[in-house]
Amino acid sequence: DQVSGLIEEDYPNLVTEYVDSSFRMNIMEAHFTQLSEYKLHFPKDISVTVDLSFGEHPNTWMGIAYRMHNEDNYYLFAVDGQANYKIFSVTSDGPDSNPSYNVDTMFTSYVPQLADEYFSINNIRVDMQGNHFQFFANNILLTSLETDILSQGGVGLVGWTTDNADIIKFSDLEVIDYNKRVVPNEASCILVQKPKDTMLSDTDLRINPLGPLGIDSNIRMSVQPNDLSVIFSARTLDPDNLIIMSRLIAPNGTIIYDINSSLEDECTNNAHYSGSCGAEGEINIQLPSSPKFPL
Fold first, then answer.
1. 164 secondary structure, DSSP code
2. Residue range 192-246, pLDDT digits in tens
3. With a threshold of 0.85, does the pTM exceed it?
4. Which Gene3D superfamilies match (predicted)?
């Protein structure tokens, strides 16, 4: 609401205002960026969530600025209406009167979807603890990053247009203490059952619990000289959810399986994949950022 500290602005090319419990940005110019900062103090470790309402143009971007020192130094997590997302760091090393901006794209991908159809992003979220950050869209865990450029700061809302002017809305911003956050069911999965659940009695078997992982995870699994096979097992909290694997890489660098180069029939019908693990080393498993079909 207005008490939260977002400034309402009125210019020939921009109007920001509170309308029907939403903060609306009417950006009347192409290739224009608007950053509205909350004039409040925020703890270091928090979870920030906001609902999004895109305008008429899907290539407009909306996002959360976090760990803001000022308008020249902050992180930014942004999405567009076509399910693309980017994570930036914006820093300046010059004087306040003439800052020199450095914009670093730390990560870019797109929100996972299982059908080639219009995909609407309704909410985004950033969880931050120390230098560790997790990013969500529609309650889906997208990726995790670690960076220590900015250790603490405020929160803001960002909108920017590309080829066309547009009107966008933010609503229901929620900021809670990191330790009180609740991870959405859609973002939780348990990969490899814990030993107490498997009732393992054969000493020739070795189990490596990987813990909870999300979209775009990268797993490195050790392979010992006497290993005959490696089995990757996964489960979700909801039986309707899917776990999709994008790539298997053997220790010798051979790509055993790749979702982008394998036939769709291979991805949907095979119960397992076979291939030499090579010598002692590691198997690299990559989960996709945008699955095309279930495995």
1. S
2. 444 444 455 566 777 766 655 555 556 666 667 777 766 666 665 555 555 556 6
3. no
4. Exo-inulinase, domain 1
What is the rounded distance in angstroms from the CA atom of residue 78 to the CA atom of residue 176? 20
| C-alpha separations of 137 from 10, 84, 284, 291 in Å | 30, 10, 26, 15
Nearest to 35 by CA among 19, 23, 45, 46: 23
Q: What DSSP element (H or E) covers 198?
A: helix 195-198
Cα separation, 69 vs 150, in Å, equals 8
| Cα-based torsion angle of the residue sequence 255, 256, 261, 266 in order, rounded to the nearest 10 degrees | 180
Using H for helix, E for strand and C for coil, what is the string for 256-280?
Answer: EEECCCCCHHHHHHCCCCCCCCCCC
Please give the Cα distance from 41 to 121 (Å, whole number). 28
CA nearest to 133, candidates 144, 124, 149: 144
Longest dimension (CA), the chain: 74
Residue 271: how many other CB atoms lie within 10 Å? 4
Q: In which residue ranges of the chain is CATH 2.60.120.560 found? A: 2-185
**Residue 70 to residue 90: CA distance in whole angstroms:** 10
Summarize pLDDT for 208-223 with one digit per residue, the tens: 666 555 555 566 666 6
234 exposed, middle or buried (CB, 10 Å; 0-12, 13-18, 19+)? middle
Cβ-Cβ contacts under 8 Å for 96 (sequence gap 6 or more): 72
* Architecture of the structural domain at 2-185: Sandwich (2.60)
DSSP letter string over 75-121?
EEEEEETTSEEEEEEEEE-S-TTS--EEEEEEEEEE---SSSS----
Pairing of the two strands 61-70 and 154-160? antiparallel
